[in-house]
Specification:
The complex is a heterodimer. Chain A is an all-alpha fold. Chain A folds into 2 domains: 237 residues, no CATH class; 230 residues, no CATH class. In chain A, 84% of the residues lie in helices and 0% in strands. Classes of the chains: A mainly alpha, B alpha/beta. Chains A and B meet through α1 and α4 of A and α2 and α3 of B.
């Protein structure tokens, strides 16, 4: 294995040397390594001076200086995006990739070699820039970050580089020109910009412990991106001469074909095609069922950690009393038919939003979003139990009637989103990544239209018109 | 070394290679000829395990191209149409880079790099950036890369296309010595003279199908018919024929007379010239020989069995005291064979059948 990795590093070495010979890469790296940290040092000094002069809160610079440390580490990392985007697409365009593809290197060796080459120079520059910034801080403000924070920032810089490069290499392997790769880079830049904003908030709030979670999350994401890249690495496509034009017409035709399947009538489509799509979701459905249980358990666990307030006891009292419940529901208009539409549309909105998020997160964000609903269910049950209501009675009265419809709808939605996500990280035999994704999208559309939307409608109807009456009746009997 | 059976490659709705079968033994050179876009490069890419065949199978150096792609690629040296060089590297570093990828031991690699740079005349330019190289130098460097790990199989696409005659000769000599060293070589080329010089077998590919295959001699015989032989004579044919008739009429030769005085009827533009076909009949050709063309002092014929009939022709001519200067086989270019094969008239099945036989 080490010998195989050594071969991958042969590629890394060559490419890194090549980058170091290219002034177009070296000039920005040098500027970001030497000039930019000094600029940030000056900025830090100015801020400190301003705050002291104004007699302002020292927390301003206490938070800003570590934040600038992160920024100094991040900026050189951005160069890695350019290098990585060029890694395969550039060689494909210059037709210099073929001798490498003809060599005995395995796919992963070629892939990892180029992945590391995309990171090496920029991480080196990032760390060098960080050192320059710290030297400046020590000399001017006599400040150094706590060792743990420094380690966090250094790891964070490396992990950000890994995420960007692994994303960029995926893009680069799926395109045959640098132009196309650059155009697709917004799929990396936008999420990274959002991520950086989140990290900035964390830094300004001083929640440095949460940075570990950010690091962990990015490592997982990078792992999935690497898996995606390897799963869809295809020597054949790299040698293809197809233009990287987006074939919307072709994609739409494929989607329609996959969506309709063999159906010649709506009845056939509903009874056969939707059934087949559900069949293909067997494994993700099983996984989502497990996630449901975990979500409820997590919610109940959280509930036991929440100290109960007087308000909770008041709520519990209402919840146990059928008469009080009826008057509460009537006074809030929750038994009106309009509420059915509201709940149904709200659920549909959530499904669409989570589906959108799932596209950018291998399905994970979608599943987590759905899981939140189940966690809330668990929290409510747990709080009720703590307040002295039987959890079985509470769940039966308040969730069971519509839950019988809504939970399967959640499970199926999550399964379809998971399938969309896993399609990206799973090699598709005889299909391109786009084709596989379109087939998964067609399955998603089938189950959402054919099963989830009707289930949510029925669930909303039951939730408004049956569950409250069932709860009132059950609690009155109890 | 290379066995391909029914190799087929379909790209969406385009059939790039359609049932190509090849067999190249160690020490053999196969020239793969065909127009641009005929499927040569796709075939080579399937043989290097870069493209996965849609149908059919192939074994290269004993390894299946689908089952053991890495082993196949390790056993093959490939010169691609695009040489795939890195402009910012120098030749020494470039060859060492690929040597490492092919796991050549460090000291051996140094020796080999020196050897190939010297062989291909790149020794003095070894530390110059490849970007500064001429086309020919780049091609030689790419060829050195393909040979560096001494693979048992070489797949070479246009190995001399950008080279000056001297460099091209050098490369052809190298290929000839590699053939002697029992390497199996597939040569994709448009240079038909090169193919004829180097190849033991020729396969002509057209629209993804092999339309003709065999040794250069077999292909010529099949596509151009039996070989032609030419007899060259010391005097014009007509005067010789006339002299023969005279001899029959006057057994003693008329000495001291010029040709024109002896045979005034053979002077150019005379009415005798109009009877040219009859002169042909006067040629002393035995059975099994057919006259194909004739000129002023030569004629050509086809022989069903040259070993049997050609000595008879010579014997008959000498017996009649015809002044024979030479008898030789008429050289036939591979170009004619190629053009005939790739033009629509060629019947693939028929041609391939003969080549197989």
């Amino acid at each position: 294995m080490l010998e195989k990795l050594r071969l991958a590093l042969v590629i890394t070495r060559r490419e890194t040397r090549d980058q170091l010979r290219d002034w177009r890469i070296m000039v920005p790296l040098a500027l970001l390594t030497l000039f930019f940290p000094v600029l940030m040092d000056v900025t830090a000094q100015q801020i400190v001076g301003f705050v002291i002069k104004q007699g302002g809160a020292s927390i301003l610079y206490e938070r800003l200086i570590p934040f600038l440390l992160m920024v100094v580490g991040f900026f050189p990392i951005t160069v890695s995006l350019v290098i990585a985007l060029e890694s395969f697409a550039g060689e494909t365009e210059r037709r210099s990739i073929e001798p490498l593809l003809d060599s005995p290197l395995e796919d992963w060796q070629l892939y990892v070699g180029k992945l590391l080459a995309g990171m090496a120079a920029s991480i080196g520059a990032s760390y060098l820039g960080t050192i320059v910034y710290l030297i400046g801080l020590k000399l001017t403000l006599n400040w150094l970050p706590p060792p743990v924070l420094l380690v966090q920032i250094l790891i964070l810089s490396a992990v950000q580089a890994l995420v960007m490069v692994s994303g960029a290499v995926v893009v680069s392997t799926q395109t045959t020109s640098v132009r196309a790769a650059n155009l697709l880079s917004s799929f990396i830049i936008i999420p990274m910009a959002l991520l950086l904003q989140v990290e900035s908030v964390i830094m300004f709030w001083g929640l440095y412990d949460i940075l570990w979670w950010a690091i962990l999350g990015q490592i997982v994401l990078a792992g999935m991106l690497v898996r995606t890249g390897l799963a869809h690495f295809n020597r054949e496509e790299l040698l293809g001469r197809e233009l990287d034009a987006i074939d919307l017409g072709g994609s739409w035709r494929l989607f329609k074909k996959s969506f309709a399947g063999q159906a010649r009538s709506f009845g056939y489509w509903y009874l056969q095609e939707v059934k087949l799509a559900l069949g293909r979701l067997r494994l993700p459905i099983a996984f989502m069922a497990l996630i449901t249980l975990v979500g409820v358990w997590m919610g109940m666990d959280i509930a036991y950690k929440i100290p109960l307030t007087q308000g909770v006891y008041q709520w519990a009292k209402t919840a146990q009393d059928g008469m009080m419940l009826e008057s509460f529901l009537k006074s809030n208009g929750l038994l009106m038919l309009m509420s059915v539409l509201f709940i149904w549309l709200n659920n549909l909105k959530s499904v669409l939003l989570l589906s959108f998020l799932a596209f950018f997160s291998f399905g994970v964000a979608g599943v987590i979003g759905l899981m939140v609903t189940l966690v809330v269910l668990g929290v409510l049950t747990g709080v009720a139990a703590q307040a002295g209501i039987s959890p079985v009675l509470f769940a039966t009265a308040y969730f069971l009637p519509h839950g019988l419809l809504e939970v399967p709808a959640i499970v199926i939605t999550g399964a379809a989103l998971l399938r969309l996500g896993t399609t990206l990280v799973t090699p598709a035999k005889g299909q391109t990544i786009g084709e596989a994704f379109i087939h998964a999208l067609a399955d998603w559309a089938k189950v959402i239209l054919g099963v989830v939307i009707p289930l949510f409608f029925l669930a909303a109807w039951v939730e408004v018109l049956i569950t409250p009456r069932f709860a009132i009746a059950l609690l009155s009997i109890w | 070394m290379i066995e391909a059976d029914g190799l087929t490659k379909q790209f969406d709705d385009f059939l790039a290679v359609d049932g190509v079968s090849l067999n190249v033994q160690a020490g053999e050179v196969l020239a793969l000829l065909g127009p641009n876009g005929a499927g040569k490069t796709t075939t080579v890419r399937m043989l290097t395990s870069v493209l996965r065949p849609t149908r059919g199978r192939a074994r290269v150096a004993g390894y299946d191209v689908v089952q053991h792609p890495a082993r196949v690629r390790a056993a093959v040296g490939v010169l691609t149409e695009q040489h795939g060089l890195y402009g910012r590297m120098n030749a020494q570093d470039y060859l060492e880079f690929f040597g490492q990828i092919y796991r050549i031991e460090k000291t051996v690699l140094r020796q080999k790099v020196n050897q190939y740079l010297t062989t291909f005349g790149l020794d003095e330019a070894r530390f110059r950036q490849i970007g500064e190289y001429s086309k020919g130098m780049r091609q030689k460097l790419a060829l050195a890369r393909a040979m560096l790990h001494e693979p048992p199989v070489l797949l070479l696409d246009e190995p001399t296309s950008a080279m000056d005659p001297e460099s091209a000769r050098l490369v052809r000599d190298s290929l000839a010595s590699l053939r002697s060293a029992k390497r199996a070589i597939v040569l994709c080329t448009h240079n038909l003279l090169e193919a004829e010089e180097l190849a033991d077998q020729i396969a002509i590919i057209r629209r993804g199908k092999i339309v003709a295959r065999g040794s250069p001699g077999e292909l010529k015989e099949r596509l151009l018919g039996l070989p032609e032989y030419e007899v060259r004579l010391a005097f014009p044919l007509k005067s010789i024929l006339s002299l023969s008739k005279d001899r029959q009429r006057h057994p003693e030769p008329a000495e001291g007379l010029s040709q024109e005085q002896r045979h005034p009827e053979l002077v150019e533009g005379s009415p005798q010239e109009q009877r040219y076909p009859e002169l042909v009949e006067g040629l002393p050709l035995p059975a099994g020989i057919s006259l194909t063309s004739q000129g002023e002092n030569w004629f050509r014929f086809r022989s069903e069995d040259p070993l049997v009939f050609n000595p008879r022709v010579l014997e008959a001519l000498v017996a009649r005291q015809w002044p024979v200067v030479s008898l030789h086989e008429v050289p036939r270019s591979l170009e004619r064979v190629y053009l005939q094969a790739v033009q629509a008239g060629a019947a693939p099945d028929d041609l391939t059948e003969v080549a197989d036989a």
